[in-house]
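Q: Structure tokens for this one, please.
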Amino acid sequence: MNRKHIRENIFKCLFMREFYNKEDLKHQIDNFLSLVRDHEEVLFWQTMDGELSEEDDTRVNLFRTQLDKDMSLITTKTAAIIENIGELDEKLDTSLDTEKKIKADDKIERQKGQKGVSTHWKTNRLNKVDLSILRLALYEILMDEDIPAGVAINEAVELAKIYSGDRAPAFINGVLAKFV
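A: Here is the predicted structure, written as tokens:
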């Protein structure tokens, strides 16, 4: 599994968190990760032909060792993000709670004398996909020394392109850029 797939599976685990209580979540994540492991093994075995040679045995052992590391990384990182959700959400709330000014040339009718419209966002107003992507990326930016901030932002934007709406990539990029 490459880092992109690992990150995508972490995102999916975080997304599940929005729909299950703590006890059920562990069970659901375990079931999901079991399916991920099975899928990865099927993909691996499709690359193998016929009887296994000694070289193939080594390849199988290396694959299983790496898969165990990847699954451990998904589990560990998901748990760390969930453990830090309060702090991550607090930082996101602070970042999202900004005033957006509406210019005169916007298509929104403004009342006479109004300077602008203040839109205060909190994490509880975000859709669950965007929130899960933001939490993952913010964790990587602030707490994961192995991931450069630019990579975390780019990967978050890519996840948004796949799993969220048309405006989400720009929104996520803008929110995360405040933390760099």
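A few notes: Helices lie at 3-17, 22-46, 54-83, 85-96, 128-143, 149-163, 168-177. The first helix runs from residue 3 to 17.
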